[in-house]
Each structure stands twice: as C-alpha cells, then as structure tokens.
Amino acid sequence: MVSQSKGYYKPEIVAKFYDAMNEAKEAGIVAKLARVSISAANKKMGAVASVSLLPFITCPARCKGTCAAECYAAKLANLRANVRKAWANNTALVISNPREYWRQVREAVAAVRFFRFHVSGDILDYEYFVEMVNTAADNPHTEILAFTKRYEVVNSFVASHGGAIAEAIPSNLHILFSGWDNLKPINPFGFPETIVYHNESEIREEWLLCGGNCLTCGCRGLGCWKAKAGEIVAFKKH
After folding, report:
1. In angstroms, how far is CA 34 from the centroid of its own chain?
2. Which residues does residue 175 pair with via DSSP β-bridges, in sequence order?
C-alpha cells in the first residue's frame, strides 16, 4: 500500500483538490453554465483535444495503492493553480449538472478529428461511460482515446451488450485498460492494456512502445489508437 506521506498522495494535496472543487460549486459555476475546459493540445499529446477531471477525486480506489503517489496529473494540478481550477470546474459541473457538461463535451468532440478523455481523472460511473459511448457513436468522424482503471464499469457495460467489444463499443472509441507496477487490469473481454516501465526495466519485444506524441500516432494509425485485444502499450514513467 502506498504511504499517504509519499509523493503526491498526501492529505494536504487531496484536500487542496476538494477545496478547489467546492470553491467552483460555491462560485455558482453550475447555475451560470460555465464553460467546460477543453485542452486543445499539450507537449506530449500534440494537437489532440481533451477533457480532464480532478485526480484522486474522480479516480477509483485502486489508484491509492498503485499509481497515486507518482501521479503526474496530481503533480500538475498541485503546482499550477490555473490547471487545478479548470479541472475542478469540470468536475463540479459534471457532478452537479451532467446534462450541461455533456452538451459542451459533445460540442467539442464534434469539432475535432482526435479527442481524448481524461489526461487527468477517470470515468466517474456507469452513466458517465454510457455518455462516452453515445458521444463516440454520434461522432464517427472523431477518433476518441480513453485510458481507465475503472475496469468494472467498462466490463459491466460490455457484459450488458452480449460480451463482445465490437458490439458494445463504437469502433472510433479506443479504450485501454491501464496497469501499473503492482496492478494487473481485470480484463475478461480482452481490451488492450497499458503498463509502465522504468529506465532499468527489461523492454519486451511484444510491447508496443509509446511513440511520444498522440497526434502523430493517431494520424498514422499506430499505438494506442489501433491497439488490439491482447496487445500491451508500454509507457516510460514520467
């Protein structure tokens, strides 16, 4: 189990994120129909639009004992007040007014070629995932990427649709089950998975190594965007 005093999983940092979300609610963000913060690009992803939520608060409990202490999203939200505020606003809005959140997210997805759910945060619940699926189905021109550790939500959805990924998930919605050093995804339906490795790790021949830029891989039809059942995409820890 990860110590709460290690890395970024500290009570004072988690409290900071809750405070930011509560401040967003108290500021009347939902009543004023504030804009969802959509990132147009970043250094790693290139020009791939994305929407994010607060780390820890929207992540599953299994993250506490695995990736939380080294969470790059928590590091960013802790250090940059503007990032923390944007993700807090998104989180407050989706919890308090999901209809408005999804209206704006759908609008953003419809306008781009590539989109990613959750550079920070994770799928909230079953209903949230249903909205992701519906958004993908309504925008077949947009390739959508999502990594998740909330395996049970996705597995439950697939099971309710006969157990076949191709029947349940639109072909333009690319779901990868995220693993960690001490976390093997619960993956009965065979979603592609991800793992992390260190400088001293032995790189396996069968791994698909992250190419370093999401837009480049998306345009070329490589890596995460085209990973198949049984394949593993490997990321160097950052």
Report:
1. 22
2. 146
pLDDT score recorded for residue 132: 98
Q: Lay out the sheet containing 49-51: strands in order across.
A: 38-39, 49-51, 114-117, 143-148, 173-178, 193-197, 232-236, 208-209
Select the more confidently predicted residue: 136 or 9: 136
Q: Tens digit of pLDDT for each residue in 90-106?
A: 999 999 999 999 999 99
Residue tagged 């960013």 (tokens)? 76
Span between the terminal Cα atoms of the chain, in Å: 21
Q: Which long-range contacts (CB under 8 A, 24 or more apart) does 24-33 make?
A: 24/85, 24/88, 24/89, 24/91, 24/92, 24/93, 25/92, 25/96, 29/89, 29/92, 29/93, 29/96, 30/92, 30/93, 30/96, 30/97, 30/100, 33/97, 33/100
Radius of gyration for the chain, computed over Cα atoms and rounded to the nearest angstrom: 17
CA distance 153 to 92: 21
Q: Which single residue is written with the structure tokens 């503007």? A: 82
Residues 113, 118, 123: CA angle, nearest 5 degrees = 115
The Cα–Cα gap between 104 and 36 comes to 6
3-state helix, strand, coil in the chain (%, to 5): 40, 15, 45
Q: What 3-state DSSP class applies to 31?
A: coil
- 0.70 surpassed by pTM: yes
Kind and range of the H or E element at 125? Answer: none
Q: Mean pLDDT, the chain, as a whole number?
A: 89
Pick from 94, 77, 186: nearest CA to 132: 94
DSSP calls for 39-53: E--BTTTBS-EEE--
